[in-house]
Amino acid sequence: MKTRSFINTAARAGLPVVAALLMSGCVRSDKPVVEEVLGSVDVKEQTCMARAMYFESNRSSEDGMLAVGTVVMNRVESASFPDDVCSVVAQNRQFAPGVMTREMTGGRELAMATAAKVLRGERHEGVRTARFFHTAGHSFSYPNMHYVAIAGGNSFYEKIGRDLRSHARLATQADVKAGRESFDFATLRQPAETAIEPTSAIALDSTKARGQSNPFMSLFGSGSQD
């Protein structure tokens, strides 16, 4: 009863439940107990997710990391990609070179914390169902790129099939930057995916982040865009 009363009092005062428990001395402050209270996550998946966020968003902000993490989860949930986080992040030429092996230094803590939030269900609202992004500001001539968000130095977009393009104008990066509404093609109940995704699907350029001499190399993966 004392514990419950203390927690209720703390909650009314705006204190997190975990903090209340720790202050009451009713639980130890070790990591496993805290994770159990908050909802544990798989450490391996958390690290893989954090790596994608860390090396693709330039550690710019939680918002930028959350956007990248949302893309990762959208891919996990897609039949066109592997069905677990680490396999998605490790796919050849999909994320920054060395994403699975390079050392994370400054900003690692934020990446790990944001990764845990994504694995517990948090998503970037603006990214919606997008599974692709490239460095913000660059443009490409493909007719199927529908932009939905700009965050963390990246522009996030969906690839819209030819049969759906007549329903609404595809949004440009300029539209998103200006705050214009980007049509939600998911409302048209897009049919199941049948197209083969290009090998280099996420970062079309980002020369600096990926160390490529030619920012358009990733355009020539395993086929052209529709």
From TrEMBL:
Domain Cell wall hydrolase SleB: 61-157
Tagged with keyword Hydrolase: yes
Domain of life: Bacteria
Name the record gives this protein: Cell wall hydrolase
GO molecular function annotation: hydrolase activity
Key words, A-Z: Hydrolase
InterPro entries the UniProt entry points to: Cell_wall_hydrolase_SleB, SleB_dom1
Source organism (scientific name): Fulvimarina uroteuthidis
Lineage of the species this protein comes from: Bacteria, Pseudomonadati, Pseudomonadota, Alphaproteobacteria, Hyphomicrobiales
